[in-house]
């Protein structure tokens, strides 16, 4: 029976220290990359929440009558409370720290968003500002990250 004789040699201490140093640098680089990825995973959700809040408020506003149902006037008497807003112009200069529903109740988890609305007379196609039959509604929602979602839409007196 013959045994193979291998010419095996071990690693020196210097080679072992260099291997550990190279592995440490590689692991530190990977940890930094993963840390960056982990901190940004919530960004799309926060941006989507701001978008949904802006779209929801815009839809609520555009579904309101053009003129005040009580007086028939356009943009003359503005109700202050959210649940009392009964026409498009009532939302002019509406601001909120946190997202609220139609009754003015704060939506939990969205307290760090800010919401603002402007409603102005605007030219739209053949409708001029002098006609006072077109309103430009702009809803802006700022997320806790400072990103703004701004939606604009026209509401006409049809």
TrEMBL record:
Alphabetically list the UniProt keywords: Membrane, Transmembrane, Transmembrane helix
Please give the superkingdom of this protein's source.
Answer: Bacteria
Query: Which Gene3D superfamilies does the annotation name?
Result: Glycoprotein, Type 4 Pilin (3.30.700.10)
Q: Which residues cross the membrane?
A: 12-34
Q: Which Pfam families match?
A: N_methyl
Which InterPro entries does the entry mention? N_methyl_site (IPR012902)
| UniProt name for this protein | Prepilin-type N-terminal cleavage/methylation domain-containing protein
* Species, as recorded: Litoribrevibacter euphylliae
């Amino acid at each position: 029976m013959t045994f193979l004789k291998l010419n095996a040699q071990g690693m020196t201490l210097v080679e072992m220290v260099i291997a550990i140093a190279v592995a440490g640098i590689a692991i530190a680089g990977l940890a930094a990359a993963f840390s960056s990825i982990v901190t940004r995973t919530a960004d799309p959700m926060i941006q989507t929440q701001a978008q949904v809040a802006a779209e929801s408020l815009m839809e609520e506003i555009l579904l309101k009558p053009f003129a005040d149902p009580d007086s028939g006037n356009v943009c003359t008497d503005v109700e202050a409370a959210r649940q009392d807003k009964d026409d498009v112009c009532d939302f002019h200069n509406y601001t909120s720290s946190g997202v609220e529903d139609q009754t003015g109740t704060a939506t939990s988890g969205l307290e760090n968003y800010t919401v603002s609305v402007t409603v102005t007379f605007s030219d739209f196609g053949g409708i001029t500002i002098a006609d006072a039959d077109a309103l430009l509604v702009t809803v802006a929602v700022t997320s806790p990250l400072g990103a703004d979602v701004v939606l604009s839409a026209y509401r006409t007196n049809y």
